[in-house]
Amino acid sequence: MVAQNQGEAKRLRVLTLIGVALVSTSVLAGCANSARKVSQITTNAVSRDASRSLDTLSAPELHQAAQSTGQAYARNPKDRDVAMRYSTLLQMNGQSDQALAVMRKLAIDFPKDREVLAAYGKALAAAGELKPALDAVRRAQTPEYPDWRLLSAEGAILDQLGEAEQARVLYRKALSMQPNEASVLSNMGMSYLLEGDLQTAEKYMGQAASSPGADSRVRQNLALVIGLQGRFSDAEKIARQELSPEQAEANVAYLRTMLAQNNSWAQIAKEDKRKNQ
């Protein structure tokens, strides 16, 4: 009975981790229901949005970017780059079903485009259609010229299907092709996080955060893993980096809420204070 209770506790913990990880995909910029500010939509706005990394956009900016890119997409749904960006923006705004619809149409228009097929696979995975996602990513791969990005994407889908060992084989292969790649190291860390092995997860997340090309999502995932181990002051410092004050407050508030589902916030703060004395 004790073992069963421990297993259930671990399962609930993993579900919580998944929830936080999904939020971190949009840089933990706040709740999905945050107020959105829509400004004038022009073709120039699409160009300005495209010149910035989506990871740096606030929640209102993401909504505005989706609106402006959606206008461009409506004018020409077969514009490959606009369609892919629109799908990504929709996903980051929590509109997974609409993002998948955009990518499904694009995959029909570009059936042999590896990048399109890979993005289609990711959209399928985001919508919870994991088996079709796996098939799409594998079809995008070329065995004689394997793409490390596709290997990493396939690994992430396998992790969600509970095939952690197979996933890690792919991550290692991707790292052999692209050493110290932050996104792959982060996926490896997430693989261990999903198993509840937080120390190993932190090891890979830390390597990812210190690697060239690491973005805010990688650092926010590191903050998550550290916070889940009770070192909340350290997690908060990382969570506040590179974000606006408003984003940082939303980020930290969300971390507190998610952590409180498994542990008392007061207890975490108390233990953290004792460790720093």
TrEMBL record:
This is Uncharacterized protein. The keyword Signal applies. It comes from Nitratireductor basaltis. TPR repeats lie at residues 148-181. Keywords: Repeat, Signal, TPR repeat. Residues 1-29 form the signal peptide. PANTHER family: LIPOPOLYSACCHARIDE ASSEMBLY PROTEIN B, TPR REPEAT-CONTAINING PROTEIN PA4667. Pfam families: TPR_17 (PF13431), TPR_19 (PF14559). InterPro entries: CellSynth/LPSAsmb/PSIAsmb, TPR-like_helical_dom_sf, TPR_rpt, UCP035836. It comes from the Bacteria.
